[in-house]
Amino acid sequence: MKRGGALWGLALLLLVAFFASLAFGEVPLPLPDVVQALRGKGDPIALTVVREFRLPRTLVGTVVGAALAASGVVMQAFFRNALASPGLLGVSSGAALGAVSVLAFGMGHTLWTVPLAAIGGAFLSTAVVVVLARRGAGTERLLLSGVALNALLDAGTAFLLSLSAGRLELSGQILFWLMGGLESRTAEHVIIGIPAIVLGCVLLLPLGRALNLISLGEQTAQSLGVDVRRVRRRLIVLSTLLTALATSVAGVIGFVGLVVPHLLRLFLGPDHRRLLPASMMGGAALTLACDVATRILPGGLHLGVVTALVGGPFFLWMLRTLA
């Protein structure tokens, strides 16, 4: 009953964050005006602000947070490590290098180019890790391959960024993308991200029981009737897809996939049938809350910076606790 109440609490928290995202900004709006605007009524200015600018931003932020947190749940169960995150297999670094490449070489003129390059880079990096780890013994070799590839991909991104140092506008675009953000999200970004992310989350939810067994160990899961190789492939593909799609529409956003699953596991326990939907709601709420903070805090902070400010101390606390 207590854990069921926690799920309802998360749903309420997400609802509050959703409406806060619609209400706060350069033009603050009272809640009744927001509700009226969602219904297509009320003040024309409020209607334009909510429907044209804030609603696409809020919808994208919701699915991005859900995708990153769900991917974090998969990674932590897959590697049986509370410090695992969506970028562990080089997914985020591969997406970053793909997007930065098309920007650096002047091919990012259309809306779809950068997201498609990010998705392609993410899947290519995951494929490379899987090939490198094919002869290894399970998840340990996969983990080490991901760490090595991450370093290589980050070096490639830094190199491309250095090449564009003399072009201020291009450098600004690349840095904005690398720091993550939901500014200027439009209906096109909603079309790019939401259907595929929702589908990925729906396909991931039935794997909660298999995640429970895999988190006990591959041999144990195999003895209990789980086709470990097939389930591992599905988990890697879905986790990569969710992280790639989230990165493709919002840039690189860290710590959501690390903090949310671990924190909710402390309250809800290790049952992934409950942890997956809870983390999706928690990740969406945290992302929206951090995005609201970027609008009301001074300094023009980017979303990725705010999530790092929230997640960094939490990560250090986790290291101290798990040491």
Describe this structure as you would to a colleague:
This protein has 323 residues and is mostly helical. The protein has a single domain (2-322), classed as ABC transporter involved in vitamin B12 uptake, BtuC (Orthogonal Bundle), CATH 1.10.3470. The protein has helices spanning 2-23, 31-38, 44-79, 91-104, 113-133, 139-163, 168-179, 187-204, 208-214, 218-223, 228-250, 256-268, 272-296, 303-322. The longest helix is centred in the first third of the chain and has 36 residues, at 44-79. The radius of gyration is 20 Å and the shape is globular. The two termini are 32 Å apart.
Q: What would the keywords be for this entry?
A:
323 residues; mainly alpha; ABC transporter involved in vitamin B12 uptake, BtuC; 14 helices; 77% helix; 0% strand
TL;DR of this structure?
The protein has 14 helices and no strands. The model has no long low-confidence stretch (mean pLDDT 87). It is mainly α.
Note poorly predicted spans.
none
Helix share, percent? over 70%
Taken as a percent bin, the fraction of beta residues is under 5%
Counting structural domains, the number is: 1
CATH architecture: Orthogonal Bundle
Q: Residue-averaged pLDDT, rounded? A: 87
Give the N-to-C terminal Cα separation. 32 Å
- For the record, the CATH class is Mainly Alpha
CATH topology: ABC transporter involved in vitamin B12 uptake, BtuC
- Number of helices, where a helix is a run of at least 4 consecutive DSSP H or I residues: 14
What topology does this entry show?
Blueprint: H1 2-23, H2 31-38, H3 44-79, H4 91-104, H5 113-133, H6 139-163, H7 168-179, H8 187-204, H9 208-214, H10 218-223, H11 228-250, H12 256-268, H13 272-296, H14 303-322
